């Protein structure tokens, strides 16, 4: 049977444990921001394997190895991409990570008929404080709409576990330039 002093010690300990738990929960809430806005630039070069291309029409109408033009693509064309994300618009801007994923022409009339369904992961590198963390970005990019085009940030990994929100993309160069640059503005929260 517990003595009075043992019971008192146990009760005290329980109170202390609850207090220290609350302290740490409060500390986490104060230290972690509830929202983050990110801006970076995706650098795209069109072309298949054996070129310096980062976007390739891998299957479907208008696809061909090394074809840099998207003018021949139609309903069902499937692109893969692996494009660098940089701090700025110039080729020598600091590399922050990459965007790798797929884009499928899902509308019957092709790209002019509503756009492209993208699904990709933006993975950040050690030049950022989000080293190895990533966000999953996707949605229908309707190039017939006035930009910015809106995409969904479904979730993330690492630092961004449990985060979600949206992203806005706009074209910063001509869409048929050798180096096509898109600006991504990301708005995410937890
Ligand atoms: C992020 O952007 C939103 C929308 O423009 C703004 O309301 C918010 O204050 C920004 N948050 C931060 C942390 O800059
Ligand atoms: C490659 O793109 C061009 C448009 O510049 C198109 O005419 C041609 O058909 C495409 N090649 C193939 C094999 O689809
Ligand atoms: C980066 O490229 C831009 C334009 O191409 C050039 O003006 C600038 O001097 C370059 N910066 C460095 C550090 O090389
Ligand atoms: C980035 O993460 C890797 C392992 O995930 C680690 O080895 C490396 O030191 C980190 N770099 C920076 C600059 O934090
Ligand atoms: C960052 O990553 C690059 C490429 O993986 C590597 O060469 C470099 O040593 C890393 N830097 C740090 C500080 O971890
Ligand atoms: C791709 O590589 C070729 C050959 O090295 C080069 O001439 C061209 O400028 C490169 N294009 C881009 C956009 O980097």
Description:
With 190 residues, the protein is mainly beta. The protein has one domain (35-189): AOC barrel-like (Beta Barrel), CATH 2.40.480.10. Helices cover 15% and strands 42% of the residues. It has one helix and nine strands; from the N terminus they run αβββββββββ. It has an eight-stranded antiparallel β-barrel with strand order 1-3-4-5-6-7-8-9. β7 and β8 (164-171) form a beta hairpin. The longest helix is centred in the first third of the chain and has 28 residues, at 4-31. The protein is globular, with a radius of gyration of 24 Å.
How is the topology of this model organized?
Layout: H1 4-31, E1 35-44, E2 55-59, E3 78-86, E4 95-105, E5 116-124, E6 134-141, E7 149-157, E8 164-171, E9 180-189
Antiparallel strand pairs: 1-3, 1-9, 2-3, 3-4, 4-5, 5-6, 6-7, 7-8, 8-9
The site of one 2-acetamido-2-deoxy-beta-D-glucopyranose has 3 residues, from loops.
The largest sheet is: 8 strands, antiparallel, barrel
Q: What is the overall silhouette? A: globular
| Gap from first CA to last CA | 48 Å
Query: Mind telling me the CATH class?
Result: Mainly Beta
Q: What is the CATH superfamily classification?
A: Allene oxide cyclase-like
List SSEs in N-to-C order. Answer: HEEEEEEEEE
The rounded Rg comes to 24 Å
Domain module count: 1
Q: Approximately how much beta-strand content do the residues carry?
A: 35-45%
- List bound small molecules: 2-acetamido-2-deoxy-beta-D-glucopyranose
Quaternary structure of the protein? single chain
- Major beta sheet, strand line-up: 1-3-4-5-6-7-8-9
Number of strands: 9
Task: Quickly give the CATH architecture.
Answer: Beta Barrel
Number of helices: 1
Mean pLDDT score: 86
Helix content: 10-25%
Segments where pLDDT lies below 50 for 5+ residues?
A: 6-29
Structural class by secondary-structure content: mainly beta
| CATH topology group | AOC barrel-like
């Amino acid at each position: 049977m517990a003595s009075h002093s043992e019971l008192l010690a146990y009760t005290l300990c329980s109170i202390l444990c609850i207090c220290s738990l609350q302290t740490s929960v409060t500390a986490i809430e104060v230290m972690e921001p509830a929202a983050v806005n990110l801006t970076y630039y995706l650098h795209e070069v069109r072309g298949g394997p054996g070129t310096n291309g980062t976007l390739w029409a891998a299957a479907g109408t208008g696809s061909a190895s090394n074809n840099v033009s998207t003018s021949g693509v139609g309903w069902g064309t499937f692109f893969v991409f692996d494009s660098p994300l940089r701090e700025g618009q110039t080729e020598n801007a600091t590399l922050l990570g990459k965007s790798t994923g797929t884009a499928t022409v899902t509308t019957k009339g092709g790209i002019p008929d509503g756009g492209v369904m993208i699904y990709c992961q933006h993975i950040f590198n050690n030049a950022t404080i989000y080293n190895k963390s990533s966000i999953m970005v996707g949605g229908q990019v309707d190039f017939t709409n006035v930009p910015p085009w809106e995409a969904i940030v479904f979730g993330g990994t690492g630092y961004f576990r449990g985060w979600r929100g949206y992203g806005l993309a706009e074209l910063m160069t001509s869409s048929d330039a050798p180096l096509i640059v898109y600006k991504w503005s990301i708005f995410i929260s937890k």
